[in-house]
What we know:
Maltose phosphorylase, domain 3, 4 domains, eight-stranded antiparallel β-sheet
Amino acid sequence: MKGKKIKNSFLRFVIFYLVGAWLIFILSPGFIVAGQAASSEEFKPEVKIKDFGLKNYVSISHRLPHSESTAWELVCKLPYNCQFQPWILVESSGGQMIKFNSTNPLVLYLTPTESVITSPGKKAYEAKNWISGEGAIYTIPPGVKVIAVKYRETGFDTQLVGYFEGNDDDYNILWQRAARTAYLCMREHFFDCPDRERVEFWGDGLAELGQSFYLFDSRVHQLSKNLVRRKLEPEFYPGQILEFLGEYGLWFYYLQTGDLDSLRAVYPQTKKFLFEQYKFGRPRTWFDWGNKDIDRPVIETCLYYNCLETLKKIAGLIGQENDLPAIEEKLEEIRKNFDSLYWQGSYYKSTAAITPDDRANALAVEVGLADKAKWESIFNEVLSKTEKASNFFDRWVFEALCKMGKQDEALKRMAGRYRTMIQSKFTTLWEHYDRWWMDHFDDASSLNHGWNTPALVLSQTIAGISPEAPGWSVYHVFPKEAFLTSIKVVVPTIKGNIRMSLNKSADSYWLKLYSPEQTSAMVGIPKFVFSNLREIRANRRVIWKEGAYCGKQKGLSWAGEDESYLKFKAEPGNWEFIASGKIILDSSKKPRPRVKEGRPLDKRHWTASASVPDSSFLFSGEKIPVEVSAAKAIDGDYWTGWRDMTQTQYPGQWFQIDMKKREEFSKIILDNTWALWDSPTEYSVCVSDDGQHWSQPVAKGKGELGITTIKFKEQKARYIRIIQTGKNSLYHWSIYEINVYR
Length: 742
């Protein structure tokens, strides 16, 4: 959140260390970051790291066994981004150095490239430190024969239990990648990213705590408890602390676990922070990295109000009634003055912002300071057309839109803003939308960052499954599926797994629920999807008809209705609700189908060349060297690639592959997700059998952000050349992976 606002990475780390010794951390099982001690001496958090054993890579860039007379690299692809240690079995004369690393260049921020000196004969070697990434790279000296390679995956000892699947694959991909990202961004504690920092920022921790309860088994609850009971450092990004101490952090944790002891333990430090330590108006409070025109006064007032409401609820629970008058006085002062200070007739805005801020207006809706009469104008004037929020803060924009009954707009915004991540081959969600930070492309932003929350939004808000009482003793199922016509979801709880599925057609709304023991489910049949609702059946018996409850179904009772739902209280067990009538099917977004690209041609014997010599560049404030040779574009890894560093894009640049034999092909995919804005401005494709005489262009077109797909009439040739025909004065041309399809 964070150090990214300081461009120079070295300065960022200096500042972190100056905050205090508690930011210095050691990566070993059971370790707690110094200064993040529990609120009481008795609380001793414990975590367990699991060894998944040695595993085979998905693919490797050379067939094994293999050796060469000069130094060479072996690039190996993992099935997903994970925490791992490379392993290798070689035969050597001894005294030669083998190097291990991730293909992710950002790991060099924290973990230097490891190396071993070989012993004579056949022997296996393994890296000592875990790294993260979607691939491994081994640097092999001349004459060393590589016999086999594997990797050892490790990670926090928990299992993915949650599940989400709908009829639009955009959201399935987002949920799955959010789950992978959440798992990757925890170990001894929650951290922002595993490659560049591994710091337990409050903001990232807030997002990860929220998602973890909807994703993993109960073993992950310990990490959340550690975070909740962590000692507050009031100067360490106090805006993020403010985000955590309200409904979205402390109260969310309590509803999930019923752990009142932890709320009692942190109450004194929470009260002290809100009443004594938090200071309004400080410029370095840091709420969100997104657009710099941020409306801090409105945002921090909303968050502070939300924290006070949570403090009030906790005080009532733990017998601190004497604090209630002072808390209520502060709440009433905000309610009384909020509109007069910030309401501009159709949206909220302070003098600190130049234009209306979607973050500020979404929070006003979320925390209840914006009454319903203002929602439509806030949507029309701000939320429908403003995108200042980062992918961290967009969580509240999505939720506010759903609260306003505009879940279709929330889902469309989510798919639009995450578009490049959905299309990417990476298995995690990134630090920045389109790798764009405030006002520039950020090459050092991580491609796996813990503050992304699509899994939480999709499972809790869109599927509509959320606790109403501590420990899930009472929960609701209020779907807001919008244009989705089917959903299947599993939500892990301390009472057991909740399973829900729904399907809707033009005349039927079908909802099936398994509710665990010791729970009471409030099931809502959405009125807003019907233009005419005739009847509702529960387990085949009519329970509602002609506008009234009429059922006598055992284990089910009428719970009333509001403007959105007809509500039924269900005891534990299996329930099937079928509502019949005329349903309004929303077709405002075309669902993304599941598409199989097919298998690309085998590249392991190919060679590549370009119009410029191979080179490298230094990226980020740490000046990390990255090799960008032509061969990197065909090694099977999307984190390594070719880049023309001589100058920005110009006509006549070319990149060429020799497939060593004639092949039939009709599609090429150029992937430069790592250097997202380096797509070719314009291109043409020519083919050849001898590398000397070239065809007329078989395809022409313009590049697409991140991934460019080129289709053409089937060709048969040995060589392929992609030629840059456009100009771009700002960005270089990159190909981080090229695949050719028959």
